[in-house]
């Protein structure tokens, strides 16, 4: 936008600056992101959501009209989307080829089948954490230990920084310093 029009972008949340609806929208139990950037997608979106009145409304007849009336458009769409769950809308929209996806909470994201299939989460002992994102067939990554526990290296770091052993002991005794067991 800046290089073409000289316009400095302003915060817009999830809204696309040149298309509507192209943003996060509230559903009955969460949020969904849709990307409608042409008339074909717009007609299919209206059909999938059962919102023929929106398709025929002159305020939303074409991409420019939808941009100019994006707040009213969003309100009208969300009034419909909040009547059903994110999963129900995803099924309907994806069946019509509408670009969309859920906005997941962290627990939902980590439970996603793709996350599970990729082996993103690694368990070592009682701890679970995100492993290496690199998965190579000939040279797979191998984890020998997980990230350090909070405070595991506090003593070592402070001694290296010039604190005396007595000063570190005083910090631990006063509760100002967490000291965990080294891994």
The largest sheet is: 3 strands, antiparallel
Poorly predicted residue ranges: none
**Mind telling me the CATH class of the domain at 2-103?**
Alpha Beta
Portion of residues in beta strands equals 5-15%
Q: Into which percent range does the helicity of residues fall?
A: 40-55%
User: What is the CA–CA distance across the termini?
Assistant: 51 Å
Oligomer: single chain
Structural features, described:
By secondary structure, the protein is an alpha+beta fold. It has a domain at 2-103: formyl-coa transferase, domain 3. 42% of the residues lie in helices and 11% in strands. It has 10 helices and 5 strands; from the N terminus they run αββαααααβααββαα. The chain has helices at 2-5, 39-48, 52-56, 63-68, 70-81, 86-95, 106-111, 113-118, 154-160, 165-174; strands spanning 22-26, 31-35, 100-102, 121-124, 127-130. Strand 1 and strand 2 (31-35) form a beta hairpin. The longest helix has 12 residues, at 70-81. The radius of gyration is 26 Å and the shape is elongated. The two termini are 51 Å apart.
């Amino acid at each position: 936008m800046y290089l073409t029009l000289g316009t400095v972008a302003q915060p817009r949340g999830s809204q696309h600056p040149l298309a509507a609806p192209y943003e996060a929208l509230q559903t009955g139990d969460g949020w969904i992101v849709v990307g409608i950037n042409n008339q074909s997608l717009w007609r299919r979106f209206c059909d999938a959501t059962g919102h023929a009145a929106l398709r025929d409304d002159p305020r939303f007849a074409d991409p420019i009209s939808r941009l100019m009336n994006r707040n009213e458009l969003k309100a009208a769409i969300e009034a419909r989307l909040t009547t059903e769950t994110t999963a129900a809308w995803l099924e309907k929209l994806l069946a019509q080829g509408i670009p969309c996806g859920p906005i997941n909470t962290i627990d939902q994201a980590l439970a996603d089948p793709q996350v599970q299939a990729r082996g993103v989460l690694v368990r070592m002992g009682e701890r679970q954490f995100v492993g290496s994102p690199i998965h190579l067939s000939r040279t797979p990554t191998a984890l020998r230990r997980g990230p350090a526990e909070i405070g595991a290296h506090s003593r070592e770091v402070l001694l290296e920084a010039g604190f005396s052993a007595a000063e570190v002991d005083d910090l631990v005794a006063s509760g100002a310093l967490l000291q965990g067991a080294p891994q």
